[in-house]
Amino acid sequence: MFVKRSLKLLIPGLIVLLAVAVVLFFLFTRKPDTPARWTYKVVNTFAHDTKAFTQGLVFEDGVLYEGTGLPGKSELRKVQLETGDVLQTHKLPDEFFGEGITIFGDRIIQLTLESKVGFVYNKETFELLREFSYPTEGWGLTNDGRYLIMSDGTPMLYFLDPKTFKQNHKIMVLDQDSPVWGLNELEYIDGQIYANVWPTERIVKIEPETGEVIGWINMEGILPPEDHSEPVDVLNGIAYDQAGGRLFVTGKFYPKLYEIKLIPTR
Ligand SMILES: [Ca+2]
What is the DSSP letter of 212? Predict the structure, then answer.
């Protein structure tokens, strides 16, 4: 009698345990989800300098900071959002091809394409404070508040110590097991990394812990045909206004900079 009663109690418990085990098995052994898809809506359009070969873009305290590329034409700039006016510049020596920028505290950090040299500036004065080196090419740059995060055109993202500029760790960006090549300009937004994918009109959203692609933003048509004046180049440059929740994008030599909203398509 006692055994029967125990079994009566035990069996439902075992069934619950089995159900939990099955759920856990599928949760932890499943393949990565198909990435989400977004398109965009332009909510504001601003002027952008058609001489700016945009390689880095950041928004902070009401102004844009922009890093531009090409030898002899590379600069660090402070730009007024509303007018596109260049408020402050620092020109790089002619041999350097400027790349991604990020703001970390009171400093601005800027990469270069093939020189394997990065520059650290005073955010207010643009005074060059120091240089550092890294072993790869330099493409995009952002930070998560703890590490600098850089791309080099491969599927890798490198997490650098912001004081020593040494690599702490790296991740490979995978879209359901396929490496995503051409990771370019970067922006860290609310715990996710957004990256322009060179030379496309797509932005990829990345999970920083694993490198898993969690979404694709299709930016096709962002530059209307009437604005395709030569020598307009590719979409590049993502900046986020944390306080205002505004997302900005532009491109190399683009005449416009856009504030966009993301629209899920599935
Ligand atoms: Ca950026």
Answer: B
**Cα–Cα distance measured from residue 233 to residue 254, given in angstroms and rounded to the nearest whole number:** 7
Tell me the pLDDT tens digit for each residue of 208-227.
999 999 999 999 999 998 88
Cβ-based neighbours of 24, under 8 Å, separated by 6 or more: none
d(CA 35, CA 32): 8
Closest to 215 in 3D by CA, of 37, 32, 33, 31:
37
Burial status of residue 96 (CB atoms within 10 A of its CB: 0-12, 13-18, 19 or more): buried
CB contact set of 4 (below 8 Å; sequence gap of 6+): none
Q: What is the whole-number distance in angstroms between the Cα of residue 57 and the centre of ligand 1?
A: 4
Q: How far is the CA of 77 from the centre of ligand 1 (A)?
A: 13
CA of 56 to the centre of ligand 1 (A): 6
Q: Hey, what CATH class is 34-264 in?
A: mainly beta
Run means of pLDDT, 10 residues per run, the chain, 266 residues: 59 68 59 86 97 98 98 98 98 98 98 98 98 98 98 98 98 97 98 98 98 98 88 95 97 97 93
CB of 118 closer than 8 Å to CB of 160: no
Q: How far is the CA of 1 from the centre of ligand 1 (A)?
A: 71
Are 161 and 168 contacting, i.e. CB atoms less than 8 angstroms apart? Answer: yes
H/E element, 9: helix 2-29
Per-residue b/e over 220-241, b at no fewer than 16 CB within 10 Å?
A: eebbeeeeeeeeeebbbbbbbb
Compute the distance between CA of residue 114 and CA of residue 158 in angstroms, rounded to an integer.
16
